[in-house]
């Protein structure tokens, strides 16, 4: 069973699993949303944890590979009065013309994407020249001990449950495609906020 099927089976129950962590992540989500402007694409919207944080003057488009997640996100957008368009779509195959967006944001997505290199290349493609990418992601820690004592056991558990990989080095991958303007490491690198620009 792949990540789509696992997330689809969870549906709204996903929030019961991830929800308790949101008190830690919520301030970082707000900070990430502060960097968006113009025509914005959120890659991997999930059930819509990012939606309440977006400024109301943007043109928001949001994708996810799991239809059940997209439906929950749509309902959340309607509840908060956010105007957004939603699509069922893979991060590795974005069905938008090149140079479509001023900003692309992903939050806790690259730990799940089956082919992160291809997804990053697609984000680069759909951004306008000079456009911004904002990545708020789980990453491998800078601390080896933390990786072995915490992230490795968590990786096994989340791998079985959701096909998540908490030990990916998305921060290094982003540097291959974008000029990094800002990078923050939180919880010893377990979470990073990265802002890059397409040259």
TrEMBL record:
Methyltransferase in keyword set: yes
Gene Ontology molecular function: any one: S-adenosylmethionine-dependent methyltransferase activity
Name listed for the protein in its UniProt record: UbiE ubiquinone/menaquinone biosynthesis methyltransferase
Organism: Thermococcus cleftensis (strain DSM 27260 / KACC 17922 / CL1)
Keywords linked to the UniProt accession: Methyltransferase, S-adenosyl-L-methionine, Transferase, Ubiquinone
Keyword set includes Methyltransferase: yes
Domain of life the protein comes from: Archaea
Domain Methyltransferase type: residue ranges: 41-135
GO biological process: methylation
InterPro entries: Methyltransf_11, SAM-dependent_MTases_sf, Thiol_S-MT, UbiE/COQ5_MeTrFase_CS
Record-linked Pfam families: Methyltransf_11
């Amino acid at each position: 069973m792949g990540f789509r099927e696992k997330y689809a089976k969870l549906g709204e129950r996903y929030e019961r699993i991830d929800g308790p962590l949101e008190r830690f992540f919520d301030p970082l989500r707000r900070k990430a949303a502060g960097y968006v402007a113009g025509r914005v694409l959120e890659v991997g919207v999930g059930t819509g944890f990012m939606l309440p944080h977006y400024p109301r003057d943007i043109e928001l488009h949001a994708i996810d590979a799991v239809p059940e997640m997209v439906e929950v996100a749509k309902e959340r957008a309607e509840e908060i009065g956010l105007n957004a368009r939603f699509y069922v779509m893979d991060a590795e195959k974005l069905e938008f013309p090149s140079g479509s967006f001023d900003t692309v944001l992903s939050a806790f997505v690259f730990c799940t994407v089956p082919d992160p290199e291809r997804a990053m290349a697609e984000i680069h493609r759909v951004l306008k020249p000079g456009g911004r990418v904002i990545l708020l992601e789980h990453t491998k820690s800078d601390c080896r001990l933390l990786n072995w004592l915490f992230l490795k056991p968590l990786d096994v558990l989340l791998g079985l449950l959701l096909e998540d990989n908490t030990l990916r080095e998305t921060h290094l991958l982003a540097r291959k495609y974008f000029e990094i303007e800002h990078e923050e490491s939180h919880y010893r690198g377990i979470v990073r906020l990265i802002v890059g620009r397409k040259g």
